[in-house]
Amino acid sequence: MSAPEAALPPTDVLVVGAGPAGSAAARVLAQAGLRVLLVDQQPLGRDKVCGDGLIPDAHQALARLGLLQQVMAQAERVQHVGCIGPSGGRIDVPGSLAVLPRRQLDEILARGAIAAGARFEQARFEAPLLDGERVVGAQLRFDGESRALRARWTLLATGAVPKALQAAGLCTRQSPSGVALRGYVHAPAMVGRITALEVAWTKAVRPGYGWLFPAPGGHFNIGVGVSDSHSGPAGRKKQDVNLRALFDAFVAAYPPAAALMREGQLVGELKGAPLRCTLAGAQFTKPGLMVVGEAAGSTYDFTGEGIGKAMQTAMLAADAIIATADDAAARARYEAGLTELAPKYKLYQRANRVNAFPWLADLLIWRAKKSPRLLKRMSGVLEETSNPGNLVSFKGLARLFLE
Ligand SMILES: Cc1cc2nc3c(=O)[nH]c(=O)nc-3n(C[C@H](O)[C@H](O)[C@H](O)COP(=O)(O)OP(=O)(O)OC[C@H]3O[C@@H](n4cnc5c(N)ncnc54)[C@H](O)[C@@H]3O)c2cc1C
């Protein structure tokens, strides 16, 4: 059944995509009294292939949305990111961390938008509606029927698959910047044995990384990922990598992963998905339209974390729309907000050099183990309480080894 004509309400902002980015923007906009229509091609309660790790930026975004408590009531709390180097050295960096399967997290967020007054409809974005150069809404497909929806603003929060970006003429890079694969393992016997967000840059998974994250209810999220900038000068490229083979190599080479697979049961299938990182691959705005979240490349390279920054970029766009009725001023404000985030992305991108030169990772872990000051600094970067700017330069990186 298609949505009847009369059911499409007057809309100030059409938000396309009910992932963390779209739902965060919809909630903020609806709280400000704007009429928001949030659409997703999938029904509420859909799953998303992800590691489900919530790092400090996600905690901060959820706190701003007023949804942190609700999320933490269901999530597994975690105290450290465990960084495991190519030679097996390990450093545990403290931080505000958690794990909650995306099916649950995204439903809390979408329902948070609805509770604030946004309407939700299941519909697919087909193309922007244009009035000259300006986007004035979208052509949406409701269960078989295509309908035009007019809105003052359209936010594209459509994630890493570039189809909607392409339809809007805003995709500047077709291929993803990374790919990753995850599975869920039910292993009650491993509870208490894997307690950190373990990210392992073991030699066997080069040019990628593997992870083990403790989820609620005796479940664990296990996966592998690889991004373009992981490969060193002579490294393999992500398109040469078979993720399933990389996953098997990770399990064989990393003893806690082997123990998890031995002690537990895989629940469902291993699933892969693309990543769009480092604020690259899309034009961020055009008159009447803003691109937010992973569609704008908001995921961090190196670790593939993107939930927090998806919400943060989307709230930047929402704030800009709320702040001014002037289209150009709102777009400029949003783009300036993204520019301010750039040093954080540069840091994660630069960290990939560590992956290309494994001895550097080993050295860094060895240094951090001996230097509480360095560990504190790493924790500050993770918590986003330290400015990463000075770490982005080679000089800054060199200083890490001297502290
Ligand atoms: C294997 C893997 C592991 C990851 N692990 C982590 C992790 O542990 N921690 C972390 O922070 N990040 C992780 N990420 C990254 C994280 O998943 C993304 O950064 C995050 O989902 C981006 O949120 P978003 O709202 O921008 O997009 P999404 O969550 O992808 O949401 C986009 C929504 O748009 C909808 N949509 C798309 N096209 C249309 C259309 N044409 N019409 C209507 N709706 C549409 C989709 O159905 C979807 O619901 C991982 C990614 C992968 C692939």
Task: Write the H/E string, N to C.
Answer: EHEEHHEEHEEEEHEEEEHHEEEHHHHHH
Bound molecules: flavin-adenine dinucleotide
**Residue share in helices?**
25-40%
Low-confidence stretches: 1-6, 230-235
Average of the residue pLDDT scores: 91
Distance between the termini: 65 Å
Number of E-type strands:
16
By secondary-structure content and strand pairing, the structural class works out as: alpha/beta
Major beta sheet summary: 8 strands, mixed
Rg value: 21 Å
Strand content: 25-35%
Total helices: the number is 13
Coarse morphology: globular
Your description of this structure?
There is one protein chain. By secondary structure, the chain is an alpha/beta fold. It contains 13 helices and 16 strands. Strands 1, 2, 6, 7, 8, 9, 15 and 16 form an eight-stranded mixed sheet that branches. Strands 3-5-4-11-12-13-10-14 form an eight-stranded mixed sheet. A hairpin with a 5-residue loop joins strand 4 (76-84) and strand 5 (90-99). Helix 2 packs parallel to helix 8 (307-323), helix 6 crosses helix 7 and helix 8 packs antiparallel against helix 9 (327-356). The chain is globular. The termini are far apart. Mean pLDDT is 91; it is low at 1-6 and 230-235. The structure holds flavin-adenine dinucleotide. Flavin-adenine dinucleotide binds at residues 16-22, 39-42, 46, 48-53, 58, 124-125, 157-161, 163-164, 180-182, 223, 273, 275, 293-294, 299, 304-308, 310.
